[in-house]
Amino acid sequence: MKRALRNAIRARMGAVSAESIKLQSEHIAAVLAQVPEYQSAQRVAFYLHMDQGEVQTHGMISQAFDNRKQVFLPKIVDQLNPSFAKEKKKLDMLRIDSMADIHALEPQGKYQLREPGSGVNCFEAGGLDMIVLPGMGFTKRCERIGHGKGFYDSFVRSHMRWCEENNKKRPFLIAVGAREQLVDSIPTEPHDQTLDAVIIDNELFRA
Q1: Which of 91, 119, 174, 189 is the Cys-Cys partner for 151 at CB 3.0 to 4.6 Å?
Q2: pLDDT tops 50 at residue 24
């Protein structure tokens, strides 16, 4: 069911014009700027959009720098103890200091993603206040279906555990997507994390 849903959304996104993606991305950045949890957040994790099939995040990230927030980006790294984990890879969130540093990033690795080569780990910086998540599809109930690799699900669980162990407030989870990624329902499993909010084009949905 999840594979069929991903394929259907991927086909819809493939038909969206570049102009529509650009416009919806601008709407999302404007809505995000008005979210109280974003306004109070000091450390925010974003993702760098792929060339196709995702809303653009550069505007949101540039806005965060303008708002004097610390920005963190994902990097896929080896598990320190792969024998104790299902996957041999995991997601880290590393701080990056400017848009110039972001523009200098080159696609790399198996998934050809633009990732920071190094940087302060989010846990060393005190943990994240907000995580802006990508995904394939979303519902108005703030459910999310990802790309199927599970990197973000694992990272969010790890961050929640870290918050409990260190008596920290958990990060606000918000996803962003285009109108074409909004669906009526998503088949969920026990490990799937419901988000706190989702921004679709110019609309904000809260759980």
Answers
A1: 91
A2: yes
